[in-house]
Specification:
522 residues, 15 helices, 26% helix, six-stranded mixed sheet, alpha+beta, single chain
């Protein structure tokens, strides 16, 4: 779990683009997770589990700007995460690392598991917390909110004092890095080799691990381009396929739609392979450029948003793939998260004739984005809105296209988060004047924002009571709808192929594997 809002955002923006939605109450269309059984008693000892990744990272630092979801996947096998996320994306203390934690006012006291040690035998202590705070406080808002880190009443306690009440403190120090630096680890597995160029990371059992012993002898992460061939040829045992299905290998922009359907059909018919589905921690939305042209008027943005039939868009985007989906009615919480509710009624506008001409920016190569763009063009035309779609190369989509602001509508995806009060704020923060006096949008690419929305985020971030914090987030979401900032469309699917006999693997949703339970059934 990471409360790093922009971690892998650039990669996801290009890889996860698409659209969908519907008016009215939304219900979850996919389960929060879908895993093979992980009963440890039925899992044999030994074996090598092979896991497909896009690329093996040269660094396992999830805080680096070029970190990817694969970086976090591998790091979680090696490093402590004080809190894990349950099926509703709520943080739960991991007893392997944390005996308990208490927050009183601005002070959080962590009680570490006394058995927790790094792979060189050094205990996990306040020094590791302090080093991470020092490294990240200049770039990460959560760590910047910390006033001090110090040892507690005994060697297994850590006291963290914040400058002001910080409600989402559970998102920090997960993962926790050793003060002495990598490659030390403190997970059920340890790193034997990391070969970014060769595309292979090898993890083996950590001899100093104090928890349930890992079942596998070895876990290999393999950079795999054509995952369907690799699965069919028995070269990998676990492979996420959402990217393969949405961006079928070798398909050009003209045949991406048919190739996408064919890729899913092939995945479903591979021998000894089961396709697991869950709601992914990512969502697709349509952003309005509120910094120029007719959409600078909030009333016009709301009127265009009211013309968007989200139910038909989701059908156009995902039904051809046979994927269940429901419209997303909240900017800040996903359908499976605790406290989710559909706030789309706050849009308040009714569809009417507009007589507008707008361009639509979307990432090239994405089958769902292409289907959605086509459906949106057809859907808005009868309302007097002429839409000119423009596909942009995924590699340059963010920096050269989206950030440049030469667009009216933009279709792309964001990573979702378990800590929206902190992590989602930059997406909706009111742009502030830069050195030249011009507003700086930051991650709020649409440029629309208000002081009220900023204050609601700030109040939520400081509210320790979960129910009151959720209520403040709902108020912020309502204000975002009323502003006509963007239209959330749907939570993306998490599609993971798992070979028969593999235990503890599948589609994890907001969570990640319990690596000591992965293995092969007897």
């Amino acid at each position: 779990m990471k409360s790093i809002r922009v971690l892998a955002a650039a990669a996801l923006l290009g890889a996860l683009a698409g659209c969908s939605g519907a008016q009215g109450p939304a219900t979850p269309s996919q389960s929060a997770s879908d895993l093979t059984s992980a009963d440890r008693g039925s899992v044999r000892e030994g074996g090598t589990l092979r896991w497909a990744v896009d690329a093996v990272p040269a660094s396992l630092d999830v805080y680096q700007p070029d970190a990817t979801p694969d970086t976090a996947l591998i790091a979680h096998a090696l490093l402590p995460s004080l809190f894990r996320l349950d099926d509703r994306a709520r943080p739960v203390a991991d007893p392997d690392y944390l005996a308990g934690a208490d927050a009183v006012g601005r002070t959080v006291t962590y009680r570490l598991n006394p058995k927790a040690v790094w792979s060189d035998g050094t205990p996990v202590t306040a020094a590791d917390f302090s080093a991470q705070w020092a490294a990240q406080r200049g770039v990460h808002p959560g760590y910047a909110a910390i006033e001090s880190v110090a040892p507690g009443a005994d060697p297994h306690q850590v006291t963290v004092v914040f400058k002001h009440p910080y409600a989402e403190w559970q998102g920090l120090f997960s993962p926790l890095y050793p003060a002495a630096g990598m490659p030390r680890s403190a997970g059920p597995l340890t790193l034997q080799s990391l070969d970014a160029k060769g595309g292979r990371a090898v993890l083996v059992r950590n001899a100093r691990w104090w928890g349930d012993p890992p079942k596998v002898d070895e876990l290999d992460f393999l950079a795999t381009t054509d995952r369907l061939d690799a699965l069919g040829q028995g070269k990998v045992d676990v492979a996420a396929l959402e990217g393969t299905v949405d961006h079928p290998p070798g398909a050009g922009s003209t045949d991406a739609l048919d190739s996408s359907v064919q890729a899913l059909r092939r995945a479903q018919t591979l021998p000894d392979i089961t396709l697991h589905r869950a709601a992914a921690p990512a969502y697709t939305q349509l952003t309005f450029n509120g910094s120029r042209g007719p959409l600078a008027d909030a009333a016009v943005r709301r009127a265009v948003a009211a013309c968007v039939d989200r139910k038909k868009l989701v059908q156009a985007a995902l039904t051809p793939l046979g994927l269940p989906a429901a419209p997303l009615g909240n900017h800040l919480l996903m359908t499976g998260q605790s406290g989710y509710q559909d706030d789309s009624a706050y849009l308040g506008a009714t569809a009417k004739q507009l007589h507008l001409e707008l361009n639509l920016l979307y990432p090239d190569g994405s089958a769902t984005a292409r289907r959605t763009a086509d459906a949106l063009v057809a859907q808005l035309a009868p309302q007097g809105v002429t839409v000119h779609p423009k596909a942009a190369a995924p590699d340059s989509f963010v920096h050269d296209q989206l950030a440049a602001g030469d667009w009216d509508l933009a279709l792309f995806s964001w990573p979702a988060t378990a800590f929206p009060a902190t992590d989602e704020r930059p997406l909706y923060a009111k742009p502030q004047p830069g050195p030249d006096g011009k507003p700086v949008a930051g991650l709020n690419y649409g440029g629309a924002g208000t002081d009220e929305i900023d204050r609601l985020f700030d109040r939520a971030a400081a509210e320790p009571d979960q129910a009151r914090r959720t209520a403040l987030l709902q108020q912020a979401d309502a204000a975002i709808w009323e502003l006509g900032h963007s239209v959330p469309l749907y939570q993306r699917p998490d599609l993971v192929a798992v070979r028969a006999g593999v235990a503890g693997a599948g589609a994890y949703g907001f969570g990640w594997p319990r690596y000591q339970d992965l293995g092969f059934r007897r």
